Amino acid sequence: MNNTTEKHRKKVKRIFCYLWGTVNMGLCYTKDYGFELTGFLDADYAGCKDTFKSTSGGAQFLGEKLVS
């Protein structure tokens, strides 16, 4: 963040151009669609015995389909 280069700025500009081009894209669900969003998360604080780093992971389901 303190030492950005022209390469970084070009990448950020490319990301913003992509987002601008997809601003009208999305998913549309009607009120009677009846989907269920379920999320699972697991975290382990300082679980690594060597580095004492924390680990975490998660999964999100839309109905029976894994989305993230």
From TrEMBL:
- Please indicate which superkingdom the organism of origin belongs to: Eukaryota
> What is the protein named?
Uncharacterized mitochondrial protein-like protein
Per the UniProt record, the source organism is Tanacetum coccineum
